[in-house]
Amino acid sequence: MHDPNRVYVFDTTLRDGEQVPGCQLTTTEKIEIARELESLGIDIIEAGFPASSPGDFQSVVEIAKAVKSPTVCALTRAHQKDIDAAVEALQYARNPRIHTGIGASDMHIKTKFNSTREEILERAVAAVKYAKKSVEDIEFYAEDAGRADIKYLAKMIEAVIAAGATVVNIPDTNGYCLPDQYGEKIKFLKENVRNIDKAIISVHCHNDLGLATANSIAGLQNGARQVEGTINGIGERAGNTSLEEVVMVLKTHAVLGLHTNINTKQFYEISRLVSSQMRMPVQPNKAIVGSNAFAHSSGIHQDGYLKNRENYEIIRPEDVGFPNASIVLTARSGRHALKFHLERLGYTLSKDELAIAYNKFLHLADNKLDINDNDLQSLMTGD
Ligand code: KIV
Ligand code: ZN
Questions:
Q1: CB-ligand 1 contact for 175 (6 Å cutoff)
Q2: What is the C-alpha R_g of the chain?
Q3: What architecture is domain 8-278?
Q4: Which atom of ligand 1 is nearest to the CA of 99?
Q5: Which of 10, 86, 164, 272 could disulfide-pair with 132, CB 3.0 to 4.6 Å?
């Protein structure tokens, strides 16, 4: 039976994510990532934009052959030749989806297409009808929906659903919206578009103002049931929504009543795979997967953490496959942290012995940024 609280997760690491200069992947690398995405439990993999290059076409073909359970999606513009290329590239997909669309904001309509609202609406409907002749599952994107006139956007979405769209994507292409504005947009569509329940509303946000995750959540709270994004939030400019962030927000705030089928324990591993293949380091303080995401370094936090993890840990590192939380030894660390590490190395000290060791430690930490086990051994043995 259809579960109204299930959120479908659409990964576009291999399409929107791969548009980043310097992040281009070979087909073999893309297949490896696609298999990992499948094992992560991703519902839809956007494998590429087949009309854009022979290499992208081939990657979509190979990914469609390589994965079984996820829907494999290919992007097109609202052009018949793009749609033809996508249909051909998806021929081996068990569950193919075509993702077609066109600009919806007046800015795009006038200055990108040199066109009118009426003409763009006709092109949108024609593209969906054309794609529907070959593939049942059609997702429509209304590019720059974040800045589009809401009544026109609603008209466009209603028309493409009537033409056969199964999913309607409302991209905040330029990462422009505030969370309440984006949430309101989704609510308006949910309440005002005829037959909106025949399609799934999808949120596709960009991170230009650092709001992609917040906007995606606002969209889901207002009725969207598909979220689009990338691993590590990679993507053009400031990137796309980080899927690991959205999924963990939903898991941490169970009160929202929304859930995904993602195996969150695989986030760390896939984050590192994408980072190394795309030669794009993960910033250390990146939520969920950054190397410092579970590192506690100040004395007050370390003390509180050692008394009860939950004082400073809202997500268990093991839930996202992180090796473990770390108590980092720096000049800001307190005695509890030093005691913790010394005990781990087999040293049980009296209160006075710990005070002496702590003084030596502070001396060392003032002159060395990162104190490791060898340093602690030397500190104890006096070597
Ligand atoms: O950001 C965007 O508008 C897109 C569409 C092509 C879906 O990536
Ligand atoms: Zn995008």
A1: no
A2: 25
A3: Alpha-Beta Barrel (3.20)
A4: 7
A5: 164
